[in-house]
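Technical annex B. To support the medicinal chemistry partners, we prepared a structural model of the target in complex with uridine-5'-diphosphate-glucuronic acid, based solely on the information shown next.
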Amino acid sequence: MKIAVIGTGYVGLVTAAVFARFGHQVWGVDIDKPKIKSLKSKIVPFYEPGLKKLAVEGIDRKKLHFTTSYKKALKDAKIVFICVGTPAKRNGEYNLSYVFGAAKSIAQNLKRNTVVVIKSTVPPSINKKVKKIIKKYTDVSFDLASCPEFLREGSAVKDSLHPSRIVIGAESEKAKSLLLKLHKPIVGSRLITDTKSAQMIKYAANAFLATKISFINTIARICDEIGASIDDISKGLGLDPRIGKSFLKAGLGYGGSCFPKDTWALVAFAKKVGYDFAFLKQVDQVNQGQIDYFVKKVKKACGGSVKDKRLTILGLSFKPNTSDVREARSVPLIKKLKKMGAKIYACDPAATREAKKAIKNIKFFTDPYKALKNSNALILVTEWEEFKSLDFKKAAKLMKEKIVVDGRNFLDSKKLKELGFRYNGVGRQ
Ligand code: UGA
């Protein structure tokens, strides 16, 4: 089956590579000419485990193609996925101009009946407008559907090949059966619903996961006050199958291109339909507040001030196994520490190139030991496995002061204390 995928970011590129792997003829489209040129030369513009291999395989097998031409991609395509970005606007709503632009370009190049599937995260009211745009520019019939994406960066390929669920929001039998057929080789629960509900599932899932994180971070603050252990509390909660053990890791809070943006967007969407989602606003406030809370911890650990202190930040990406720094906690944290007079030495296994665009006037290192030399404190921001297996004996000798502030409760506090470090976690004693 020929498929067109509009947008070659995380969602689009992974979607395209996965369907190419199942033998379909997939055409990835993007308006970004240099990006398409790179992809044609088998260069994946971001780090995502397993993606390069999958994409190169698809290109070599002549199943995966890239173009800037909608005309080429849409010719004879049975399904077209809209996977373009939906960045946040100042008021929290999504900027949907890329989705609308894609809808217009699809319409202008539609030559036969096609199923148009929205995969980008969008407010559940958008379908009417997308339909209107397509109808404005073509008389060719089409079916609209929604297939929200639940993949996580850092494990995007694995999540796409083994999804927790496949949600298909379809408005016609044709769209439903074609999308079921397309997903046939992928094992996982299927849920067929209407397009609005499909899009609402995506919103609600991200809001719920963000809520779990802010909840556990609030409990961690109480733990700090009373000297209880958040690790044990998370374990104790997770043993209850009604709660589940995932997304109960306390620390610096959530970042990335999804949770912050999607919670703001849901608050804005709720407001539009007449509901004040005060509860979700609070989730966001707790998350934003984690940075100041953590800065206070760093200050206290450094004896009351970070002025002229050399602080080594380990981890810049918003989570491990990705080069993405969008809404990464490292960015506001470093900016605040710098403002307070600290000298920042940062190290990340994959995100340095991206971080350099977001943070200026700090020193970047590829070798964590060089970053730790003469440092007053090690500050763990992203839980890359590489940092867990550091030689802390060596680190202790290199550092000026043996202070660790762990923003992800990731390091072995017992071992570090045995080595003479003063260890500080979040809700962890
Ligand atoms: C998230 C969802 O998990 C995906 O299901 C969804 O498809 C995706 O958003 C999206 O909307 O596209 P992602 O942003 O890649 O995926 O990353 P997560 O693994 O969910 O982590 C998000 C943030 O929460 C990270 O900053 C992470 O460090 C933080 N987090 C996660 C915690 O602070 N504590 C936890 O217990 C778990």
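Notes passed to the chemistry partners:
The radius of gyration is 23 Å.
Residues 121, 149-153, 206, 209, 213, 247-249, 251, 253-256, 258-259, 318-319 surround uridine-5'-diphosphate-glucuronic acid (CB under 6 Å).
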